[in-house]
């Protein structure tokens, strides 16, 4: 055990520890990972499901709510990724972006002409 600590200390003094840590983070934190994490985090922040999860956690077991919400979100996101991958093999990205843009335009016009009751 002491020999292990001495080996780690020698590696840190030689500067090898920082290189190992950088290699780990450069493999884990790829640009696509960071982009998908930030987009998902910002999109989900303050939405209805988060508010419902907060309300549920105030009355029920918080750990159970956290685990259930995490598993549910993981499954939902995984289905979106698999579905997007399958869709990308059939339809071009430009078509998906155009249809998505038209849908959002339609929703905005609907909200403008038919305000909520």
From TrEMBL:
Q: Which UniProt keywords apply?
A: Membrane, Transmembrane, Transmembrane helix
**Principal location listed in the UniProt entry:** membrane
InterPro entries xref list: GDT1-like
Answer whether the UniProt record assigns the keyword DNA-binding to this protein.
no
What cellular component GO annotations does this protein have?
Golgi apparatus; membrane
**Family of this protein:** Belongs to the GDT1 family.
> Could you identify this protein by its name?
GDT1 family protein
